[in-house]
């Protein structure tokens, strides 16, 4: 078994990394080195302060790790496999879930909304700058009063006046929105009651993004409350291939699997910390790694990691083969995040009292897991999506 000090990860007990091609593994190793060298030294200070280190944007820009999953944009062409992009999400979350979320919102939710929902002219206008991180994106769907029921209950409205749309409403929990250049805003067309997508510049009059304070999870991410008061958006900035919420669901289906990979990375990061601590920490004259109860927690953690990793490798294969369905990503998100909660709890337990101190890192993983467990569809909502698929009966109220 490899150690975490060489090219592999000790938690990769079944050598899933071997499924990558040689070229893909080079990109993965670049991601691993970038997170270790550029991100990790900044994490705890910014997590404690609740600030996003803006200098990371320039470092990401230089890394060549953005836009790889979009053919024709970014450093690599054609687009890389879903297995590699999943492994990259794992690597980022293994170091810090907040930075991984910043990347996922920009590179996943925002960019994929434009890729899937925009015209060719819109893709060519926005995606190259986003792929180089010269511009930053955000994704505004959730609302103050509507989370899981936003498909039916969306209150933000869009009304067309000639070649202009007027947006009014509010959004909540919008990552990157305080500093993003472009925010993909979803609103209900008052004329046909269907959801439409709009790319809104942050400096548009009537658009206000206020940072949400006092979070206990993903503290580095700058989530915002957005208010839209008479925000005027040209028809040219409406995503031309979005006609209903089904198009939004297509984006969520694709990105939800990335959240599952992120949860796996959090598991691995917490497990690695616990394993190292158990090896070094002595009680009663022996390293606690030699205690049966500690080994039981470590092995259960590794079992969760291995089971989830195998599920996600197959999920990526389904995506790459084009037979990927909503229930596939929903099962992964629901199952992997539940197992993540177990692993971070066991890791914190191994640390004892030290597990609640940020200096030991595991407290950050423990706290960050709570946000990942909830966003991109709660466990309950994803369970109902899978339940409908396997029974043919809808249990949605």
UniProtKB/TrEMBL annotation:
Record domain Acyl-CoA oxidase/dehydrogenase middle: where: 138-230
Keyword flag Hydrolase: no
Residue ranges occupied by any Acyl-CoA dehydrogenase/oxidase N-terminal domain in the UniProt entry: 21-133
Coiled-coil spans in chain: none
Annotated keywords: FAD, Flavoprotein, Oxidoreductase
Entry GO MF terms: acyl-CoA dehydrogenase activity; flavin adenine dinucleotide binding
Cofactor: FAD
Gene3D superfamilies: Acyl-CoA dehydrogenase/oxidase, N-terminal domain, Butyryl-CoA Dehydrogenase, subunit A, domain 2, Butyryl-CoA Dehydrogenase, subunit A, domain 3
Record carries keyword Transcription: no
GO BP of this protein: fatty acid beta-oxidation
TM segment ranges: none
Family per record: Belongs to the acyl-CoA dehydrogenase family.
Database matches in PANTHER family: ACYL-COA DEHYDROGENASE, ACYL-COENZYME A OXIDASE
Full protein name: Acyl-CoA dehydrogenase
Lineage: Bacteria, Bacillati, Actinomycetota, Actinomycetes, Kitasatosporales
């Amino acid at each position: 078994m490899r150690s975490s000090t060489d090219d592999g990860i000790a938690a990769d007990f079944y050598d899933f990394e071997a499924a990558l091609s040689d070229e893909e593994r080079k990109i993965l190793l670049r991601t691993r080195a970038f997170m270790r060298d550029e991100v990790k030294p900044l994490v705890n200070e910014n997590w404690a302060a609740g600030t996003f280190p803006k200098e990371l944007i320039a470092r990401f820009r230089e890394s060549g790790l953005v836009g790889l999953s979009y053919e024709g944009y970014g450093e690599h062409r054609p687009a890389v496999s879903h297995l590699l992009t999943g492994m990259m999400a794992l690597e980022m979350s293994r170091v810090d879930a907040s930075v991984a979320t910043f990347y996922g919102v920009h590179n996943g939710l925002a960019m994929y909304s434009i890729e899937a929902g925009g015209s060719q002219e819109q893709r060519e206008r926005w995606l190259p700058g986003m792929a180089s991180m010269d511009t930053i994106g955000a994704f505004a769907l959730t609302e103050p009063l509507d989370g899981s029921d936003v498909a039916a209950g969306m209150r933000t409205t869009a009304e067309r006046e000639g070649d202009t749309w007027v947006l009014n409403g509010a959004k909540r929990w919008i990552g990157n929105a305080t500093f993003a250049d472009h925010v993909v805003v979803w609103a209900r067309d008052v004329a046909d009651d269907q959801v439409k997508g709009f790319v809104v510049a942050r400096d548009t009059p009537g658009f206000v993004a206020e940072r949400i304070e006092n979070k206990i999870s993903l503290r580095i991410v700058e989530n915002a409350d957005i208010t839209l008061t008479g925000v005027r958006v040209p028809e040219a900035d409406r995503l031309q291939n979005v006609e209903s919420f089904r198009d939004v669901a297509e984006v969520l289906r694709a990105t939800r699997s990335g959240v599952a990979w992120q949860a796996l990375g959090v598991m691995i990061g917490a497990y690695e910390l616990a394993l190292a601590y158990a090896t070094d920490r002595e009680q009663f004259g022996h390293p606690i790694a030699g205690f049966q109860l500690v080994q039981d927690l470590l092995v259960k953690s590794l079992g969760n990691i291995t089971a989830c990793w195998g599920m996600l490798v197959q999920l990526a294969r389904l995506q790459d083969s084009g037979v990927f369905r909503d229930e596939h990503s929903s099962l992964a998100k629901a199952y992997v995040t539940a197992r993540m909660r177990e692993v971070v709890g066991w890791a914190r337990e191994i640390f004892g009292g030290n597990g609640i101190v940020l200096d030991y890192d595991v407290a950050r993983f423990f706290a960050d897991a709570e946000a990942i467990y909830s966003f991109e569809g709660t466990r309950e909502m994803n369970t109902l999506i899978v339940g409908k698929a396997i029974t043919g009966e809808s249990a949605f109220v």
